Amino acid sequence: MGGAVSAGEDNDDLIDNLKEAYYIRSDLVERAFRAIDRADYYLDEYRDNAYKDLAWRHGNIHLSAPCIYSEVMEALDLHPGLSFLNLGSGTGYLSTMVGLILGPFGVNHGIELHADVIEYAYQKLDSFIKNSDSFDKFEFCEPTFVVGNCLDIPPESRQYDRVYCGAGVQKEHEDYMKNLLKMGGILVMPLEETSSIRHYHLTKITRTGASSWETKKIISVSFAPLVLPKHSTNGKPHTLRVTTDGGDNQSRGRGSSFSVGRGLAVAGLHKRSWLRLDFVSVENVC
Ligand SMILES: C[S@@+](CC[C@H](N)C(=O)[O-])C[C@H]1O[C@@H](n2cnc3c(N)ncnc32)[C@H](O)[C@@H]1O
């Protein structure tokens, strides 16, 4: 997917091309895109390809094409103070851009299936904070990433103002995704067409009431599908439990695929524990 605009010489050039082709339309989105060099999310040996409008995959690391991220960022209609959930948060590139818009009173959570990808995302986040010239020009809502299958979030979990899913969503999971939204919230995801398996439309869904949603198709896209949850030995699904954390930094680390120690430190630094709801990955929570 991608190739909608010409390759750039550098990040600014790529953003110029995305603007010219009307993929980036708002100043807020443009500013976030310019602040983060896409090449920094590539492995060094592949950096040269970063300013092409193409998706990139290496092992478990996967970035979508810049034209897709532009459509996603515009469709999310972001502003400071919102809560955001990124399903399949990958390298953290999108979550970091979003964090630049949400500012210090936002909430920025990501769930990613692969622990090595979360590790990579935190390395990239550290490097952005330490080395980027643009970091000081923003009030940042630092993302927190947890390992888990995003289809294992139980229905009683918190809801978000904005939700993005970075992998293809089957029709049967549409309602599950819609219920992650607060009233008035916006969900953007590649949603499978009813008539055609593995054919997706990037779709924007706005929650207009307790049981009403407005749906708008943005563009036809090709995405790898969401990985379905594995069932544990007793046949029950693993569960991502969402708990409130009183900020004592003690309630994490339970569960076989749990890995958010770093996220906790980050949230603690911001002293926003009253805003924070943390994911704890556990098996078969009753
Ligand atoms: C296209 S990549 C998203 C990249 C991300 N937007 C970024 O900024 O790097 C899709 C991601 O979804 C993850 N994924 C796929 N199925 C998942 C699932 N069921 N739960 C959580 N993550 C999943 C993949 O491991 C992959 O990292």
Automatic annotation (TrEMBL):
<keyword id="KW-0963">Cytoplasm</keyword>
<dbReference type="GO" id="GO:0005737">
    <property type="term" value="C:cytoplasm"/>
</dbReference>
<feature type="region of interest" description="Disordered">
    <location>
        <begin position="234"/>
        <end position="257"/>
    </location>
</feature>
<protein>
    <recommendedName>
        <fullName>Protein-L-isoaspartate (D-aspartate) O-methyltransferase domain containing 2</fullName>
    </recommendedName>
</protein>
<comment type="similarity">
    <text>Belongs to the methyltransferase superfamily. L-isoaspartyl/D-aspartyl protein methyltransferase family.</text>
</comment>
<dbReference type="InterPro" id="IPR029063">
    <property type="entry name" value="SAM-dependent_MTases_sf"/>
</dbReference>
<dbReference type="InterPro" id="IPR000682">
    <property type="entry name" value="PCMT"/>
</dbReference>
<dbReference type="GO" id="GO:0004719">
    <property type="term" value="F:protein-L-isoaspartate (D-aspartate) O-methyltransferase activity"/>
</dbReference>
<dbReference type="Pfam" id="PF01135">
    <property type="entry name" value="PCMT"/>
</dbReference>
